[in-house]
Give the backbone structure.
Amino acid sequence: MTRQVVVTKNAPGAIGAYSQAVKCGSTVYLSGQIPLDPESMEVVSDDPHAQIVQVFKNLKAVCEAAGGSFADVVKLNVYLPDLAHFPLVNDVMAEHFDEPYPARAAIGVASLPKGVAVEVEGIMHIEG
């Protein structure tokens, strides 16, 4: 099975030794997205809600670059330094996902890159 690197300018470029996503067969592994503006590569806001919105915007761009959409996402991992922001994640997810929702884990962490409030990674399965 061949591996294909997924790259889009509509999401932040990698800031380390990783790819935005890797497609292997019908499975796409989406690297963690933090709330960076793709053009400036700066954190969009100090506001946790605005950061969560940007993270899902970035994830959507990577999904589309891989030939899929949020409807193809089967698993998400959400990393939050402050689990009190988890209801905001639910609100933003409800705007982007329809039932059946993907499997999901929420993990409390000590910190995230650039001091952001959220990071989300996932797995997508594309038929065909």
